[in-house]
Fold:
Amino acid sequence: MTQTAADRFPTRHLPAVTVRELPDPPRSPWRIIGPGVVAAGVGLASGEFVLFPYIASQVGLVFLWAAAVGIITQYFLNMEIERYTLATGETALTGFSRFWRHWGLVFAIMVYFANLWPGWSTSSATMVTYIFGGDATWIAVGMLLVIGATLTLAPVVYVALERVEFVKVALVVLFIVVAIGFAISASAWGDLPETVTSPEFPTELGFALMLSALVFAGAGGGQNLCQSNWIRDKRYGMGAYVPRLVSPVTGEEEAAAGGGGYVFEPTDDNLGRWRRWWKLANQEQLATFVLISFVTIVLMSMLSYSTVFGVPGLENGVSFLEVEGEKLKELVGGWFGTLFWVIGALSLFAAALGIVDYTSRLAADVLKTSYLPRASESKLYFGLVWGLVAIGCGILIAGFDQPLPLLVISACVGGLMMFFYSILLLVLNRKVLPSQIRPRAFRVAALVWSMALFGVFSALTVWQQGDKLLDWLR
Structure:
């Protein structure tokens, strides 16, 4: 009996996949632009506005090489996540769950631990107070409610998210263009080559800080896994056969039916379409996620270097942005410092929106796929959205400072998660996909590098942060 492409997929825990033809890719590459912009927009948060600029304010531009390493590593990770979804219409988490039913739940719990604290909305609200004054706590609560309403009322959630992140990226790019003309100094341009000619790993700022910047440049943690969900809702490849996640209030489609995914037979026609899809998907990630993330980190770091390099007493936190904004007012004018805070507040708010979306989206997909096949994924998603919003509002209203255990867990969980799913992606894509579309040698080498990078990061972070957690428990 001849083996079909579907026969390679484990069916012990999930239904079998269905064989269908791979849909034709669009004629214009512009029609698939979106998931990379969303990834860059959601990831463009404290790392680009605080972490790398803070490092630049302390040691100059000699650590920007780490941004390139981190972003390129994540590019290869994202593409292996996209490979599986392009070929099957299933998310990577669903693929993992074919080997062991609870893999998806493990990752969903890890994502929740990393994102439970409403840090981005709090940071955005704090920047609003720099402009208008007010109570950052209640502003942050209002932002969380707006996020919940936005994700609830959007007829197709991905479309709303994509539009928000497009606007965010456009505003950040506009600000950077203005900054190049008015605020980035000639000395910053002159010293930029030092990141290549004199690279450093400035551990005097703290090893955990350096590793966090290296590993989470661009995105990181659970966000990369959501590339599956975003490209599926954008109708990439076999994802065109899967209904999109919609609002139970205003939407018309029903999200993801309870059966298995899809796979195509490796015929000449399907493989021709696959090569065009794969080329377009790679181009989209390079032209959006990689380019936007790297350019933003470099230019925001140069802005920091031009304004606050050498200023004593700077903190690695949102208060750093207050100092930088005041300095921009002195050097350029009051309007520019205010513009900096406005863009920062909008950027961090859009990041918070994306984080609530992908945290809830991943969990809803896992619950629907492995535990509640008869449930509506849309209703699960919106219950999880409002649950996360309610938890965030409760934490803020209760007046809790960000708890030390959550900080430690967040630092450890992100890298550990990426270490595990680097391994699982390699096994998944090499084991179940047809031989003609499996990752080749250099992509395999990129995943092995990812395992090593995130494995070392996780071990060192646990080693460094373990004492703090033990002290708290005592």
Observations:
- Residues 415 and 457 are 6 Å apart (CA to CA).
- Residues 268-308 form the longest helix (41 residues).
- The chain has 18 helices and two strands.
- The chain has a mean pLDDT of 88.
